[in-house]
Structure formats: structure tokens, C-alpha cells
């Protein structure tokens, strides 16, 4: 009987999943093939009943595809990297291309996705956003500062010792929370508290691709050895910390958006990047643990939604009522650079605040060039101008053949004889900005001016340099090069002016913030909103220097960073506040409230400027505008969406039934599901109309939207106000919407 049962199990595995395998799967023909990580999407309800769990089914299938049996000593039962069961059904594993192709041909397999590598998108912001500690009637008060909501941060881990993660005065961990604290090197289980209610790490995909991690430089635990995750977590939900600063800069009160919200840290990013298989496993776990908001400051190139592990994981989270926000990316100011563009993700770009850190260049010809810096060490000789040299004119080789490398101040590229005792002008690009200064210092230079390239424009990012250094815009950089080449003895010095508040205009769209149009769905405007992302003060690990350079021995409890990585957790924390104040709102309603109340005018009451050009920015950069959390508390009307709406959107995007099933896990075909007129008919808070520039095709488009009244009961009337883009006419029917009760809906058409 036992022998028969064993045969039945093996036979069932072969029969149910592997109807026919190509001859090329003979083990002798694939032994030389390279294995790489893949994510396999499976239709989980097709599991044969003979398998006690889905994992047994998956591993048996892998064994069969590899042409082995369970008794084969070369393949262990732990052949999967991750098994997914909440937002995604399937597994990840190391496969050859032939094995991946064979799996994809099986009836129960919906998709086989390559395991892509993603990268991180890297005091005063609550005040700038109008969130006041002692506000008795605003968003903080209405939401009880986000108490008992859990923000899941998928990043580089967390440093639990930070004052930003103190649990003093917090109540017990919410009873509904199912997460746990995973212990590991440098992170005992006691690291969690009533503030950090969960901490996990996901490195299966990373180690499968890169090999066992070097634990002398990173922790195989939730502990943060980079700093990025600690920074983003404290922006979203850090406690109030008084007298915070980064080596004296930006001194004041540091606070997250939702100071009483709980934090769950999911470490998915390592020295080699952030692997989709690990990110998807973290999504799966965060939803299972009971998170309310998921914050992801990670991204990469844009692919169709059914091939995008972040989009797939986020869909499963939103389906469970969880708000998902993600960074738009730092590839601006170029067009079509925005990432994380699916309509169920809230995509966040970056803007400035009214604070900067001036560090001006004084040239020997009397010209003053404005710059920014967070250098906090000893300054240059007071009252003395130093010789100034362009790094491109100081290559290590005598023939000047490596002038390009030296212009970028790459490691080992500078001639010490040419730069010793001088201020060196370096071009931005290729290697990290702060590392350039370290290269100059090792070659004997006394200071550095870092000049933007043409593609960087005029946007400036303040860095915690390891030598006296400042950053200047592209135009200024070109002027300084001309001065060096024309002056007989060019000289300069740098004057560091500390922290400056009340800067106007503000906000400004950050130069690096990624821009639309949406590469995957032009009818869907992305980014959705912008939030503070330039020079943001937040918590930092004790064991990591503020510059991120390995040789930096300085230590600080707070650091100042820039990026859409910093903007995203602002919106994550605000979403927690809005969910706390309005528990019945869906993720789409929360996003709608943030978008429809956002503003596009700066402190001069003019359209926000684009830092890259100095000209007015556009919707392709700021989306609906800059978030205004106090107004978002009472948006009046919201554009709501359900999961069925998103499925209709996918069907209207000409995706196959299998592709839709990969994202949405819905078994009905698009033929039987409600369709939209087109992707642009999704009930989204922004409206994009795409026309052919050559005038071909339709010159008129009509879209409809449905709004839900979330204001107080009683009669309320809304009237449409339209400012058509130049060269277009817009008509709204009806022009007036009347509501008699909260929850009532109304529809309008826009032509």
C-alpha cells in the first residue's frame, strides 16, 4: 500500500502539471546552462488534492521539470527561494532558461517572470505641511496622530535604538497585529517594542543571485547597515525628537508624519540591490501580518503590469484594503522617467521646502556663485583664496588620455601634483557625489566644487561632504570652467553659511524627481502628487557615517538626504493619518483626497517652478500638485475605485486573459468582465487625454467620472471650474452637481 501511494504522488505531479516536456530537458543537455532567479505565478486552485500543501506541489513540479526525482541527492526539497500565498500565488526559484520555458508551458503556470533588481530612490517637513503638534482640530488630532495603524516599510531595515522609534507613552501593540520580530545578527528579538511592532528580512533572492552575503559589511537580520530604511521609516512614523540636527544643520524638532503609528520594517534591499523575489515575499508577509499602509522607496524600469512584481504585489495589497505608496524615481528631469506607474499605487515625486544650506563659491575675479553643502568640518583658510583647477585638466596620465575619468574625479584618476593644495572642480556623474570629494582629498586637494552636467540642470542637492565642498548648477559649472581656462592664476574659496529658513519660492519641483508621461499607460497621469523630498532630516543609524562613504568616521543620530525615497514616506504617513481619521475610506479614496486637495501654486502665488530649468513646472512633473494634508482631511468629493474597476482597466489595456489573471487572480475572462471605453476611462482623480501630434486620429475625446460625497450631510452644491490647456476646449456636463447626503454619488462627462 505504501509503495502504491508513493507512485501515485509522483504520477500525479507529472500528470497534473507536466503534460509534455521538451527533449532538451534531458539533464545531460542542460547541465552547462546558467541558472538565474525566476518568479513563477501559479493558478493555485489547480493544486492536485494528493499534495498536502502548495509548497509540496511546487517542489514536486520543479523536480519533474529538472528531470530528477525526490531521491536525487543533487536536488534538495528546499528548491524554492520563496513561496507566496497572500498577494501572489506561486514561488521563486533558480532555473535555467530551458526550465523556465518548460514551466511557462504548463497549464497551471500563469507567468514566469525574471527576478529583476531594483534600486533605492535616494524636522521641518511636518511644519511645512501644516501639521502642528498642538493642533486641536487638524489632521493629527482627528487621527490621534495615527495611533494603532501599522506602516510597513520595505527598505534596508531599521536601527531600533533611534530616539525616533521610542515607544514611550504608546499603548499596547494592536491585538489584530500578526507580525513578529525576527532575530538575527545585531538584532535580538528584544529590538522590537510598542513602536517597532515587527521586523523581518528577506534575502533569499539576493543570496541566490549574488551568493552568501558578506556579513562583515551587512547584517543578515533586520538591522540597517545602510541608513536608507531607518531614514524613510522615521519620515513616515517617527516620534517627536527635540533638538535634532545633522552635525548642527537643520536644528529643531524631528518628527514623522504619523508619530503614533506603529512601524513594521521589512528588509528587502542589500548591497547588490533589491530583488523582486524578495520584495514580493515582503508584500506577501506584510499583508498577512496586518499592515494598514505599505511604503516602498524602491523602483526600476517600467514594464507591463503583468511582468512587474511590485505592481502585482501592490495589487494584492490594495485588494485587502491596504494603501500602497511608492517613489516615482530620481531619473528626472527627463521625460517618461517615472516608475511605479500602476493605477493602484500612489506614485510620489519630490519637491523642496523653504529651507536650504547655502555654501557659496567666491572666485578670484570677484564673482560669487551660489551653491549648497552640508559639510560640517573645519573650513578652508579664512580670508585666503586657494588655487583652483579643473579635474579634467589634472589626469593621472602624462598624455591626458584619461581626462574623462579625471573630470569625474574617479578613484585613482587625479594627478596629486596637479591638485595638491588646491580647490578642484569635479563634474557630477558616474561615481557617488561625496566619493568624488574623498578622491580629491586622497590626492591632496583641499576642497571641491561639484558641478552639475547639462542633464542635471540647475537642481542642487546638499551632501555631507568629507572635505570642504559645495555643489553648483550646470550654468555655474560652465562659467567656472571658462574662468579656470581664461584666468592666468584662477583662485577661489568656499563660504559655508549654515541653515537658511524662509527660502522663497517654495515648494519647487526637485530637478531629480522623475517625470511623466506614464510610459506604460499614457492615459494615466503619473506621478500622482509630490511631497517634500529635498534635504530631509530624519533618523540615522549610529554605525554609519552621514556621507555613506566607508572611510567616513563621523557619527550622527540624524541625517539629511534627498530623493523621491524621502517624498514617498511623507505620503505613506499622511495616508495613515487619513485612514485613522476616516477608517471607512478605501485606498483609492485616500489617494483621491490627497490629489484633489493638492496645490500647484508656490509661496509667491505663482505656478511652482521646476528646479531644473527655473521655469514653471507642469503636471508631468508635479501630477495633481503638492500634498496639503489639512485640506485632504475634508476633500468634499472623492473618486473611488474598486478592484473590479482595476480589472476592467487591465481588460481595457488589451491584456490577455492570462496576463490579467497574473495580476488580479480573477478567473473570469475579459470577455465576460465589464470593460472600460479605454484605460483613460478609469475613475481616476486626474484626467489625461492623449492626441496624435500630427493631427491624425480623433480630435475629440470624451471621458466620464463618478464622484462620491464624503462631506457632511445636508444639501451641498459643487460647480465645475475649467482652465483648458492652450489650444484646447473643454466642456463639462453637467456643470453643477448637487448632493443631499454623505455617500451619495454623481456622474459627469468631460469632452
From TrEMBL:
Domain Subtilisin-like protease fibronectin type-III: 681-751
UniProt entry keywords in alphabetical sequence: Glycoprotein, Hydrolase, Protease, Secreted, Serine protease, Signal
Record PROSITE patterns: SUBTILASE, SUBTILASE_SER
One GO MF term attached to the UniProt entry: serine-type endopeptidase activity
Signal peptide range: 1-20
Intracellular or extracellular location(s): Secreted
Bilayer-spanning residue ranges: none
Domain Peptidase S8/S53: 146-614
Main location: secreted
Domain PA: 387-479
UniProt keyword Transmembrane, yes or no: no
GO CC entries: extracellular region
InterPro entries: PA_dom_sf, PA_domain, Peptidase_S8/S53_dom, Peptidase_S8/S53_dom_sf, Peptidase_S8_Ser-AS, Peptidase_S8_subtilisin-rel, Peptidases_S8_3, S8pro/Inhibitor_I9
Entry annotation: catalytic residues: 155 (charge relay system), 228 (charge relay system), 565 (charge relay system)
Pfam families, A to Z: fn3_6, Inhibitor_I9, PA, Peptidase_S8
Chain ranges of the Inhibitor I9 domain: 37-121
GO biological process, one term: proteolysis
Top-level taxon of origin: Eukaryota
Family to which this protein belongs: Belongs to the peptidase S8 family.
Protein name: Subtilisin-like protease SBT1.5
Amino acid at each position: 500500500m505504501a509503495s502504491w501511494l508513493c507512485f501515485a504522488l509522483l504520477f500525479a505531479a507529472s500528470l497534473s502539471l507536466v503534460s509534455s516536456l521538451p527533449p532538451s530537458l534531458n539533464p545531460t543537455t542542460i547541465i552547462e546552462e546558467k541558472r538565474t532567479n525566476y518568479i513563477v505565478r501559479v493558478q493555485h486552485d489547480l493544486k492536485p488534492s494528493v499534495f498536502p500543501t502548495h509548497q509540496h506541489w511546487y517542489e514536486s513540479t520543479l523536480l519533474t521539470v529538472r528531470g530528477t526525482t525526490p531521491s536525487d541527492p543533487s536536488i534538495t526539497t528546499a528548491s524554492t527561494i520563496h513561496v507566496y500565498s497572500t498577494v501572489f500565488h506561486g514561488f521563486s526559484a533558480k532555473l535555467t532558461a530551458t526550465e523556465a520555458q518548460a514551466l511557462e508551458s504548463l497549464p497551471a503556470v500563469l507567468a514566469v517572470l525574471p527576478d529583476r533588481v531594483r534600486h533605492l530612490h535616494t524636522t521641518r517637513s511636518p511644519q511645512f505641511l501644516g501639521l502642528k503638534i498642538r493642533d486641536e482640530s487638524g489632521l493629527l488630532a482627528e487621527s490621534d496622530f495615527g495611533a494603532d495603524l501599522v506602516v510597513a516599510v520595505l527598505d534596508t531595515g531599521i536601527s531600533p535604538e533611534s530616539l525616533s522609534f521610542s515607544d514611550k507613552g504608546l499603548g499596547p501593540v494592536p491585538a489584530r497585529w500578526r507580525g513578529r520580530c525576527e532575530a538575527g545578527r545585531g538584532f535580538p528579538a528584544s529590538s522590537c517594542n510598542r513602536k517597532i511592532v515587527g521586523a523581518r528580512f528577506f534575502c533569499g533572492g539576493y543570496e541566490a543571485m549574488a551568493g552568501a552575503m558578506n556579513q562583515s559589511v551587512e547584517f543578515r537580520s533586520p538591522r540597517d547597515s545602510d541608513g536608507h530604511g531607518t531614514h524613510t521609516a522615521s519620515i513616515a512614523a517617527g516620534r517627536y525628537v527635540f533638538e535634532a540636527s545633522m552635525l548642527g544643520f537643520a536644528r529643531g524638532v524631528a518628527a514623522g508624519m504619523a508619530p503614533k503609528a506603529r512601524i513594521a520594517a521589512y528588509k528587502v534591499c542589500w548591497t547588490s540591490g533589491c530583488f523582486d523575489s524578495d520584495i514580493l515575499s515582503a508584500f506577501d508577509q506584510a499583508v498577512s501580518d496586518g499592515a494598514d499602509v505599505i511604503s516602498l522607496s524602491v523602483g526600476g524600469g517600467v514594464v507591463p503590469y503583468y511582468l512587474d512584481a511590485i505592481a502585482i504585489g501592490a495589487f494584492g495589497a490594495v485588494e485587502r484594503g491596504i494603501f500602497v505608496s511608492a517613489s516615482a524615481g530620481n531619473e528626472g528631469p527627463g521625460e517618461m522617467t517615472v516608475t511605479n506607474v500602476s493605477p493602484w499605487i500612489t506614485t510620489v515625486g519630490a519637491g523642496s521646502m523653504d529651507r536650504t544650506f547655502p555654501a557659496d563659491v567666491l572666485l578670484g575675479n570677484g564673482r560669487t556663485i551660489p551653491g549648497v553643502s552640508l559639510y560640517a568640518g573645519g573650513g578652508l583658510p579664512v580670508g585666503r583664496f586657494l588655487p583652483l583647477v579643473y579635474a579634467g585638466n589634472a589626469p593621472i596620465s602624462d598624455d591626458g588620455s584619461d581626462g574623462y575619468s579625471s573630470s569625474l574625479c574617479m578613484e585613482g584618476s587625479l594627478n596629486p601634483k596637479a591638485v595638491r593644495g588646491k580647490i578642484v572642480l569635479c563634474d557630477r556623474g558616474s561615481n557617488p557625489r561625496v566619493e568624488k570629494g574623498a578622491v580629491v582629498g586622497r590626492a591632496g586637494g583641499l576642497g571641491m566644487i561639484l558641478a552639475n552636467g547639462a542633464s542635471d540642470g540647475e537642481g542642487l542637492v546638499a551632501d555631507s561632504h568629507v572635505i570642504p565642498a559645495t555643489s553648483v548648477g550646470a550654468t555655474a559649472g560652465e562659467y567656472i570652467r571658462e574662468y579656470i581656462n581664461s584666468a592666468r592664476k584662477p583662485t577661489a574659496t568656499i563660504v559655508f553659511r549654515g541653515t537658511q529658513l524662509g527660502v522663497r519660492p517654495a515648494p519647487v519641483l526637485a530637478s531629480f524627481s522623475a517625470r511623466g508621461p506614464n510610459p506604460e499607460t499614457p492615459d494615466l497621469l503619473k506621478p500622482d502628487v509630490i511631497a517634500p523630498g529635498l534635504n530631509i532630516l530624519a533618523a540615522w543609524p549610529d554605525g554609519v557615517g552621514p556621507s555613506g562613504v566607508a572611510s567616513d568616521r563621523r557619527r550622527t543620530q540624524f541625517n539629511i538626504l534627498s530623493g523621491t525615497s524621502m517624498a514617498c514616506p511623507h505620503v505613506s504617513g499622511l495616508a495613515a493619518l487619513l485612514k485613522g481619521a476616516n477608517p471607512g475610506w478605501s485606498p483609492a479614496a485616500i489617494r483621491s483626497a490627497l490629489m484633489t486637495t493638492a496645490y500647484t501654486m508656490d509661496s509667491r502665488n505663482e505656478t511652482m517652478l521646476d528646479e531644473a530649468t527655473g521655469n514653471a513646472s507642469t503636471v508631468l512633473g508635479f501630477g495633481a500638485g503638492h500634498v496639503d494634508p489639512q485640506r485632504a482631511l475634508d476633500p468634499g468629493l472623492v473618486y473611488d475605485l474598486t478592484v473590479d474597476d482595476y480589472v476592467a482597466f487591465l481588460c481595457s489595456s488589451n491584456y490577455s486573459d492570462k496576463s490579467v489573471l497574473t495580476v488580479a487572480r480573477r478567473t473570469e475572462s475579459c470577455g465576460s468582465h465589464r470593460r472600460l471605453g479605454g484605460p483613460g476611462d478609469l475613475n481616476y482623480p486626474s484626467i489625461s487625454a492623449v492626441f496624435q501630434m500630427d493631427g491624425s486620429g480623433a480630435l475629440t475625446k470624451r471621458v466620464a467620472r463618478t464622484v462620491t460625497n464624503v462631506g457632511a450631510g445636508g444639501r451641498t452644491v459643487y460647480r465645475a471650474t475649467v482652465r483648458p490647456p492652450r489650444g484646447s476646449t473643454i466642456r463639462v456636463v453637467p456643470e453643477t452637481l448637487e448632493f443631499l447626503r454623505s455617500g451619495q454619488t454623481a456622474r459627469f462627462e468631460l469632452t
